[in-house]
Amino acid sequence: MSLQQLNSNSFEEIIYDDCESCLVIFSRKDCHVCKEVVPMLDELKPQYEGKFGFFYVDVEEDKNLFQRFSLKGVPQILFFANGEYQGKLAGKVEEETVEEKIAEVLNA
Amino acid sequence: MANTYDLIIIGGGPAGLSAAIYGGRARLKTLVINKGTIGGLVNTTREIVNYPGYTQVSGPDLMKDFHKHAQSFGVEFLKEEVVSVDLSQEEKTIKTKKGKEFSAKAVIIACGSEPRLLNIPGEKRLRGSGVAYCATCDAEFFEGEDVVVVGSGDQAIEEGMFITKFARKVTVIVLHDEGILDCNKVSAEKAFNNPKIEFVWNATIEEVLGVENVEGVKLKNLKTGSSSELTCQGVFFFVGMVPSTKYLIDTGIEIDRRGYIPVNDLMETNLEGVYAVGDNRIKYLRQVVSAAGDGATAAVAAERYIEELNVFNSNVLQSEKKVLLLFENALINESLEFGTLLEEVNSESADNYKIVKVDMATKKNLAHKYDIKTAPAVIVLEKGKEIKRLTCVLDKDKLKSQLC
């Protein structure tokens, strides 16, 4: 997997201090839907190099992060820009849907 | 062409993997195209206790064994989604979402099924915000909360019990009268004895309520018609499956109105060289063990079909001698008599031709290919190309004159 994994500290730095435009997928190892969505993001990532960040949070390792966003399930892709939450996509999402959402965040 | 195979299997669940094992062992050049995790829906099962030889095994572990087994026979795997197919020709072609193209002599469709959506208000909107379909993935998010489970099949009841490890209370919404569940008896008994599980009988769910997150569900009593609301923070849907065969609509393959593919005992579909196995076909029992059986049957049928195809290619299409392709029907006397006469005439003229008999009852694809409707019929082929058709008369001289 080429997505950089975040913990509570690096999450803080990248999302709120650096204000990077990015997405963060909340996932877990034994979730079969995640196993379809994560590789899709992996493949999408190179197209957005330098423009849009792709990150990963393991909800088992960093429970406080999913609790903070009161998430009710994985996988969920959360979008951020300028240190602000821009919405999320839940469950089994298609590549096109993610691309549309990225475009929306970048053009906002 | 590098992307040419003997056998392509679409889907990497137990049916597809079993077909791959048999295909690989038969030395067919075999490719499995699978869009998600190898193993398919079996990966969502924590515990399998009825696959012979395994007293108890997890779904993912069993599928890893299937996968390794197929790999040991040289089967290739590709993680991609198939978006379109042309299966009606002798050479079958398959296109993937990323634009890759493959061709094969035979194709086995093993795409399985996916959870059915009820399409009720709130279901889609609150997905991931309390609406869930996978207990393994999401049960933990409902620690100490109230959860509703919709459905009463094996999956609903077994997953419901798993959710009680985290949730405060699990309420199961059941269509049937009190005491009747669709699941197996062992699980039903366990569920009835689980203090954290409650049941609402004769009910369906009409709406998922909530603004940001699930706050409750609206239920309808089927006996009285009255509606009621139930407060909860999560809803898990286990309301059956639908076959993943949408991409096959309008491709010439027969599909019933629910999306399942009808097949015969050999797993043959209505198209030559195309087979359907596992959960996406019409069948009585949808289990790992029956899926594996399907896969084996289809792979053997495909192997024989490919063998026939290869024999035809070398015997007929690449024959040095001119070929008389004789279409026969064993039930028609005239057809059999004509066959005997044709052989006699040929031997009298120094076996100028090679006679290849085609039984119209079993080789429907060949009859179709040459547009033959009645037997007897004879096509004269030179180097695989049709040069003429004979008029089939039971008159030795007239027949002889046509062959000169």
Protein model, in words:
- The complex is a heterodimer of chains A (108) and B (404).
- Chain A has 108 residues and is α/β, with parallel strands linked by helices.
- Chain A has one domain (4-107): Glutaredoxin (3-Layer(aba) Sandwich).
- Chain A has helices at 8-17, 34-44, 63-68, 95-107, and strands at residues 4-5, 22-27, 53-58, 76-81, 84-90.
- Chain A has a 5-stranded mixed beta sheet.
- Chain B folds into 3 domains: 4-115 and 241-312, FAD/NAD(P)-binding domain, CATH 3.50.50; 131-237, 3-Layer(bba) Sandwich (FAD/NAD(P)-binding domain), CATH 3.50.50.60; 319-402, 3-Layer(aba) Sandwich (Glutaredoxin).
- Chain B has helices spanning 14-25, 59-72, 135-138, 154-163, 185-192, 288-317, 333-348, 364-369, 396-402, and strands at residues 4-10, 30-34, 76-79, 82-86, 92-96, 101-109, 113-115, 131-132, 146-150, 169-173, 197-200, 203-209, 216-221, 227-231, 234-237, 241-243, 274-276, 322-328, 353-359, 377-382, 385-390.
- In chain B, strand 5 and strand 6 (101-109) form a beta hairpin.
- In chain B, helix 1 (14-25) runs parallel beside helix 2 and helix 4 (154-163) packs parallel to helix 5 (185-192).
- The two termini of chain B are 40 Å apart.
- The mean pLDDT of chain B is 94.
What is the CA-CA span between the terminal residues of chain A? 29 Å
- Number of separate structural domains of chain B: 3
Shape of chain A: globular
* Subunit arrangement of the protein: heterodimer
Tell me the name of the CATH class of chain A: Alpha Beta
CATH fold node name of chain A: Glutaredoxin
CATH architecture of the largest domain in chain B: 3-Layer(bba) Sandwich
